[in-house]
Automatic annotation (TrEMBL):
It catalyses: L-histidinol phosphate + H2O = L-histidinol + phosphate; a myo-inositol phosphate + H2O = myo-inositol + phosphate. One of its GO terms (molecular function) is inositol monophosphate 1-phosphatase activity. It comes from Marinitenerispora sediminis. Its cofactor is Mg(2+). CDD domains: IMPase (cd01639). This is Inositol-1-monophosphatase. The keyword Hydrolase applies.
Amino acid sequence: MTAVEPRDLLDLAVAVAREAGALAAEGQEKVAVLDTKSSPTDVVTEMDRATEELIRSRLLAARPGDAVLGEEGGAATGSSGVRWIVDPIDGTVNYLYGRAEWAVSIAAEVAGEVVAGVVAAPARGELYTALRHGGAHRDGLPLRVAPAVPLELALVATGFGYGRPRRAQQSEVLRHVLPRVRDIRRAGAAALDLCALAAGQVDAYYERGLNPWDWSAAALVAEEAGARVGGLHGAPPNPELTIAAPPGLFEELHDLLAPTGADTDG
Ligand code: IPD
Ligand code: CA
Ligand code: CA
Ligand code: CA
């Protein structure tokens, strides 16, 4: 097996994310709900599926031996040691409502570690990229998280899963968090929440119920911009709970969330 160059994976991911972003942007105006998944509000559109299909076929045309994990089920197993983790449209509800906060997210994992990530937000004209140990950039300019502030001065982004019992628990957690921070932001796209953290546009982020396609590319962007990204008690980012913030604030937010059951459905 020839050695894989993360820079080459990033270049491929950028080219594919740009093409996929253009396809999705073109389809946004006439989009409609095609199906629902875990609940009536967990929607999928034909553009989620078409965009994932384009991404999968372009990646596999360039690198036929790779594996792919995509939100809409476009999986492929591979033998190269490289796995692509794809969210074709992160922020589908925003996309459906004609809003700009949605993104194409593509991460490249080598031997189980994400080494390159791209988050393309065409309706906002933004492209976020990151290479492990190579920094994070927005449109080619380096990104840095804002310096850690005390929790009570932190602007905290979060999001909510689609299921109703989980929503009830998440509102309980929010009731606990809201009086203890500067304010809350809910943009509707987890990848863009993490990129906003990387760009210093929020101070911290937490969410329960994410999947690898939501965080893989953007967590690398946030980490390379100086954030710590993880779960509770030293765990890596995971579906139970993902927390992201600069060191210092991460621990404060972690300790606020840990006793609340933020990693449970109540
Ligand atoms: C969702 C968005 C949302 C987050 C949800 C995700 P999707 O992804 O990232 O902000 O709160 O947990 O499922 O379904 O739009 O790709
Ligand atoms: Ca979805
Ligand atoms: Ca998503
Ligand atoms: Ca999605």
